[in-house]
């Protein structure tokens, strides 16, 4: 805007300045000439007007007629005085205010007669002397005294210099106004032409973009655009490729698709992931050997396939007891670990570990992240705790991770994927270290409304930190809206709803929903036999009959997951439908997490207690039958979890609040045989995609119990119908698509920045912000964006 204003004002000032000087130079002499001419002409007119009267008065020797005419002429304020002399000393007739002692004397003679003061005054007057010829016969004695052969009389016309000056000034003012007006017209003309030129140029670029580069390809693009053509062509190619990929509904989003996309759109660009939790944890066993553990983390489940597809670097907290023993001097290790005697993996990547002291971990991870932000963002009615010392650690650890990323970056513009609420400050810190980086931050948990977020004493700092990102992702449009509303409440930022972006401190951040998902694999050939084997094996291991009905719950032991409410729903089911006593159980896998925090140890205690109480209650009603709650508070690896999914015909996901919840999606993906029922909390992000689940309010115990009863009696045909719809959606909106959409948006942003740089280089003008947004919009339209957006699109179409 400033540049634009300058572009208007500077030419205006320059033109006015030049014209001002010109008007000064030209108008002075010009006006003097005009005034002189006017005075001379007026004196001439006076002489013509008086000539007859003079002749008459000379002939008749009577000056009264002449004197009258002279008086009437001097009534005009421009004429000061008039005299007619027959000789320098003899005045024939004169107006009243003519200095009589002067007669018609000139020069020194005149000064002698009137004295120096009057002479000075006279010198300021405009005095014009005109000799008028008179006939020899005329005048009798009067003229012939002075000029016996006829000769002449002298007419003296004095004009008022002040009046002439006033008119002079007036004319000068008009002239200046004329020049100024001319200047303004010229400046406007200049601006209009410049503006037209700029628009013409922009339209040229637009034409090249909108005709798909045809004009550029045929060499018909205008010459001003020629320097940009390589960049525009690349941009178009990338957009067309995106459209081709995304329009093609038959495309299978697989690791290969992601690889192709990285090669085509981010060719050669390095990708760095940052998360708190590491994807592989090296733990030391009691016997001294090392085992590799996979964490129970939805984030790791989702991001790992992306890393394997792009072979980048993952920076994370090294939390395992043997982590330090397996890294190189720069704290790096290649992962996934190669099994003994195995071949090197083609999709390995680098894990860079960051070491934290116990104090740092306490303040940053347990304190600010998990006692502060976690309960702040989840509505589970656990009060957030904010301590100043935790905040200080959180800041310090974010800065340490920023240093580690900058240290890992081989280029000055890597694509950095920042994961989750542990790193709200990291994007801005990274922006300071790597200004040209493309920073994609994904917030894996919900974002609350502005009132709730306002509880955090460092709300502004958190928002400012996050707005260092190029792209900021949430699971659902609702979380995006909450975030924008929060920014609006706390920061002086420019929010553009139309393209969902926030501009703050010179940085534009796109805020988008990217519903996270899971890897998708087509059903195995032996899916049925494998499922049957798993069903039998689990029942056998638990001492249950082959007909025993099972529901599964898999969670971290977290108060947001609604584990207690789930068990209460089982109790209510058995109370209402005693026929299921001894014939149905919930297998609850609960991976211990954050157990040093009071809220978590209290939950651990409560969950165990409720399971014990409900089982005792059931045992009283149906002695000797299997317990309704089979509680497994332990870690299970992903293969074991999948076996449980295949073995249990119902899954219960009853989170009180959840960003997405990948267990719901994993269960659907594992049901390759097409049967099974998912009971899903309406407060989990997954509910906005998996509509065919039995959606419940987990706080409403009876409703969940009813859903359980319905699931236990649902006809297999209905199960398959619902499962097929959910599986189709997941096959389409899988984790590769989640990552792909984010990376494509990043590629668009990078391309936009490159084209903009080029425009600045070529023209020195910053292109308007909206110019290169069309590709994203077009892709959103083609893609349907998220399943929710696709759904909205369909609804709109129907209407
Ligand atoms: O839900 C967000 C998330 O980051 C998950 O990805 C992960 O399961 C959890 O929170 C964090 O768990 P932890 O504190 O054990 O890393």
Strand content: 5-15%
Bound molecules: 6-O-phosphono-beta-D-fructofuranose
Low-confidence segments, given as residue ranges, are 137-144, 769-785, 790-799
Give the overall average pLDDT. Answer: 85
Q: How would a crystallographer describe the biggest sheet?
A: 10 strands, mixed
CATH class of the largest domain: Alpha Beta
Q: Report Rg.
A: 47 Å
List descriptors.
799 residues; alpha/beta; Beta-Lactamase; Rossmann fold; 4 domains; 10-stranded mixed sheet; 6-stranded parallel sheet; 26 helices; rod-shaped; disordered C terminus; binds 6-O-phosphono-beta-D-fructofuranose; Glyco_trans_20; transmembrane
What would you note in describing this structure?
There is one protein chain. By secondary structure, this protein is an alpha/beta fold. It folds into 4 domains: 129 residues, Beta-Lactamase (2-Layer Sandwich), CATH 3.30.450; 31 residues; 259 residues, Rossmann fold, CATH 3.40.50; 207 residues, Rossmann fold, CATH 3.40.50. 52% of the residues lie in helices and 15% in strands. The chain contains 26 helices and 22 strands. The strands form 4 sheets. Strands 9-10-8-5-11-12-13-16-15-14 form a 10-stranded mixed β-sheet, sandwiched between helices. α19 links the parallel β18 and β19. It starts with a helix and ends with a helix. The C terminus is likely disordered. The protein binds 6-O-phosphono-beta-D-fructofuranose. Belongs to the glycosyltransferase 20 family. GO terms for molecular function: alpha,alpha-trehalose-phosphate synthase (UDP-forming) activity. Keywords: Membrane, Transmembrane, Transmembrane helix. This is Trehalose-6-phosphate synthase. Pfam families: Glyco_transf_20.
